[in-house]
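4.2 Preliminary Data

To establish feasibility before requesting continued support, the project team ran the inverse folding procedure on a target of 464 residues. The structure was first converted into the token representation described in Section 3, and no sequence information of any kind was made available to the design step. The complete token record follows.
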């Protein structure tokens, strides 16, 4: 699957593909966050809002006969066409995704395409759709068959009342069959996360106070939720999602993720990184409990910036993540000491190896260099294994180069539409990745070499 963007913030034109672990690195103001937010917004739109059209004849046949077979072949052959249609709809929404002026995206293009042939999983899908009171429709895709069987669960005469529900349910199931493996459920952690953690209580108080005030107003036509949504519209979609997640953390804490159920050792590794654990009380109070003194309870504004920075990640891992998810983190190194940046890289490798896909943007040479080591480690090589044991690495942290894709946001050459010659501008250049040599990112190496050169010059001058 290829994602193409054009005139997206600083990025003039770029293409990238998603791997199990996708990394975009580069200097400031080179478009890393633009690419990240655009990708998250599209997956969110496609999974939750894009309506795949279903023919009127098919629905008519289902309503008349009570059952119908829906061939998937035509939809499958036209998957790129469906994606193009979805991208065209989504591009119109970019000003809302970024909470920016519409004129900023006048010439922007966002496209997702598949290189044919692209297979899709032939697993069984069986689901019922309906209202709060009763199920209306049953949809079943048998294993290894390219069709969906639709069966009405209501008597004739009542179906017409639910025509829109039936239309949406069939479209959603077709989309799930053909695309769910390509567009996993995303969870994004933006670079603005520390602010949401500090002001969580104030956000809740302000919202509740607003609701109390407007509920007492005589004008019953006034919609307080419309006002709240208008306030939220001033923030980019990922930031809004972070705020919503933090505000809803008491309910989040009642759930248990598959990591907590099956890989609790990863949660312990996370606690070692932050030096403690988070706790939500029955009164919806959020505290950090340090490992060195479990009797101490620190509020978020009393806690370190690293504790606040990793709050979303901690609750995601412990309470809601599912196998196959896409975890998106903008600058995971934010507020972290180099040692913890390395530990985060190792934690990410473990998550990838248990089925979580990860997408990050980063400025961190420590994170990249640590990933280099994890890629270069070969657990089947005895000398490598000795080094891993000596340095306290586990086999589960070893990372295959085939799972990693790295792009550098920087100047590069590309061909613009209508031009015969390549032009130079900001793009995303793929980095070379090798099982033996790791990731090659010149921008980091150049900065380090420059610092080394300056320090060596100073030492030589001091010795004269």
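Position-by-position output of the design step:
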């Amino acid at each position: 699957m290829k994602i193409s963007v054009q005139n997206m913030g600083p990025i003039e034109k770029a293409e990238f593909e998603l791997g199990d672990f996708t990394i975009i690195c580069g200097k400031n103001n080179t478009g890393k966050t633009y690419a990240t937010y655009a990708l998250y917004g599209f997956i969110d739109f496609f999974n939750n809002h894009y309506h795949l059209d279903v023919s009127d004849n098919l629905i008519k046949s289902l309503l008349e006969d009570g059952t119908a077979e829906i061939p998937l072949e035509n939809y499958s052959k036209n998957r790129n066409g469906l994606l193009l249609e979805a991208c065209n709809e989504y591009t119109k929404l970019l000003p809302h995704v970024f909470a920016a002026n519409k004129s900023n995206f006048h010439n922007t293009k966002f496209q997702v395409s598949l290189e044919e042939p692209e297979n899709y999983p032939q697993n069984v899908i069986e689901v019922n759709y309906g209202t709060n009171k009763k199920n209306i429709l049953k949809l079943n895709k048998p294993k290894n068959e390219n069709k969906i069987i639709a069966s009405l669960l209501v008597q004739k005469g009542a179906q017409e009342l639910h025509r829109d529900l039936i239309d949406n349910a069939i479209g959603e199931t077709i989309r799930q069959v053909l695309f769910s493996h390509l567009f996993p459920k995303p969870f994004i952690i933006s670079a603005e996360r520390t602010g949401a953690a500090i002001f969580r209580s104030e956000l809740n108080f302000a919202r509740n106070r607003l609701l109390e005030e407007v509920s007492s107003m005589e004008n019953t036509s006034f919609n307080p939720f419309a006002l709240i949504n208008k306030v939220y519209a001033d923030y980019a979609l990922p930031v809004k999602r972070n705020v919503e997640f933090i505000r809803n953390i008491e309910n989040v804490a009642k759930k248990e993720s598959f990591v907590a159920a099956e890989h609790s050792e990863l949660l312990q590794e996370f606690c070692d990184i932050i030096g403690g654990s988070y706790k939500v009380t029955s009164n919806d109070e959020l505290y950090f409990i340090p490992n060195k003194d479990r009797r101490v309870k620190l509020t978020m504004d009393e806690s370190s910036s690293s504790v606040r920075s990793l709050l979303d990640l901690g609750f995601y891992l412990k309470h809601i993540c599912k196998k196959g998810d896409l975890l998106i983190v903008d600058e995971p190194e934010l507020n972290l000491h180099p040692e913890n940046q390395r530990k985060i890289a190792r934690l990410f490798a473990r998550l990838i190896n248990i089925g979580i896909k990860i997408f990050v943007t980063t400025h961190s040479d420590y994170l990249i260099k640590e990933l280099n080591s994890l890629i270069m480690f070969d657990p089947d090589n005895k000398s490598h294994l000795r080094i891993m044991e000596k340095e306290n690495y586990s086999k589960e942290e070893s990372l295959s180069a085939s799972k990693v894709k790295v792009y550098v946001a920087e100047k590069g050459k590309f061909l613009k539409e209508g031009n015969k010659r390549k032009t130079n501008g900001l793009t995303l250049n793929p980095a070379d990745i090798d099982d033996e040599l790791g990731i090659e990112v010149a921008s980091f190496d150049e900065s380090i070499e420059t610092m080394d050169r300056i320090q060596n010059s100073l030492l030589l001058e001091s010795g004269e």
